[in-house]
Amino acid sequence: MRVTKEKLHQLIAQKLERAGLLNEHATVVADVLVHADARGVHSHGAMRVDYYAERIAKGGITIEPNFHFEKTGPATATFDGDNGVGHVAAKLAMEEAIEMAKESGAAVVGVKHIAHSGALSYFVKQAADAGMIGISVCQSDPMVVPFGGAAPYYGTNPIAFAAPGKQEPLIFDMATTVQAWGKILHARSKNEAIPEGWAVDQDGNSTTDAHAVQALLPIAGAKGYGLMMMVDVLSGILLGLPFGKHVSSMYDDLTAGRNLGQLHIVINPEFFTSLAAFKDRIAQTMEELQAIQPAPGFDQVYYPGQPNTITEASYEQDGIEIVDDIYNYLISDTIHFDQYGNKDPFAT
Ligand code: NAI
């Protein structure tokens, strides 16, 4: 069904507040989830509310976190999220990074001890909206085999990038896996096969049987594997947090904090060129990419992130597409369905 941005925001914030979050935190989480749904990234939108509500209700998210921002050098800082909702800590830490980069030209802020923070495009867009380049990376639970391996070690460790443009920012945001875990779940629910190259079975063999999946595959083989390693080093090891296979699982022990890490890097274009020239060239890049002749089988070349921008424009006009079950949950009196505790993500 279709729902307006405002209505979806109100329903999500209300549910999370009823689950126990402070009003101002519930509002920020709703901002981030609606941002994702509005851009067609439904894997990180309203479908997460039930899980967050269960974790909040069971104590695995600090309701009144004691945030601690500490400047550690002229252009570096840490932001301790005290295992509160990751969205709020990541947003506040990005605000700090932007302020620092106004003075120093660049800033690196490590966000540590947080719960899941959602779609990273939200945070890098904050930087682009302030006329800065934003880069953000974070850890997630181990469910990806290293290249050539048969057991998971890294998470889907996403990388997001945004740069200010003229009409709109350029935003690119991806997991370092071929496909998100949500796509496997979707295939399972429909008893459909998955394409070769998405995932492996328990022996590490590539599988097309969604029910046999025991781990996901990195993008571009050894190269994507290397990228997810870099994300883990930057958002885990660098911040003194659990890393690799030691990162907490999304569904393990919903009563405990996840201690995840995220790293924001902000670069101020004014320290390299003028902001106006930078924006002009970003806009020119976006135009020139779209003007490239499409290869056979393609309608058009899109600039990175453009499919999300197109979805956003269509949803703005017609309302955001939301799965009926999710909408019905949001309008119901149920706070959560108590279905995530100690769930094995690979169980069929
Ligand atoms: P995706 O595969 O849907 O898209 C990845 C990127 O490719 C997007 O920027 C998209 O606009 C671009 N793209 C796709 N098709 C394109 C085309 N034809 N031309 C040009 N650009 C194109 O995204 P993915 O990898 O499924 O990630 C979804 C979200 O999941 C992201 O927001 C990510 O931050 C989030 N995530 C969050 C995690 C967390 O723990 N917080 C963990 C993993 C992912």
Rg over C-alpha atoms, rounded to the nearest angstrom: 20 Å
Second-tier CATH architecture: 2-Layer Sandwich
Instruction: Report on the biggest sheet.
Output: 7 strands, mixed
Count the domains: 1
Q: What would you say this structure looks like, in words?
A:
The structure is a single chain. By secondary structure, this protein is α+β, with helices and mostly antiparallel strands. Helix content is about 35%, strand content about 15%. It has one domain (about 1-275, about 310-330): Ribosomal Protein S8, Chain: A, domain 1 (2-Layer Sandwich). Helix 4 (about 85-105) packs parallel to helix 5 (about 120-130). The radius of gyration is 20 Å and the shape is globular. The mean pLDDT is about 95. Bound molecules: 1,4-dihydronicotinamide adenine dinucleotide (NAI).
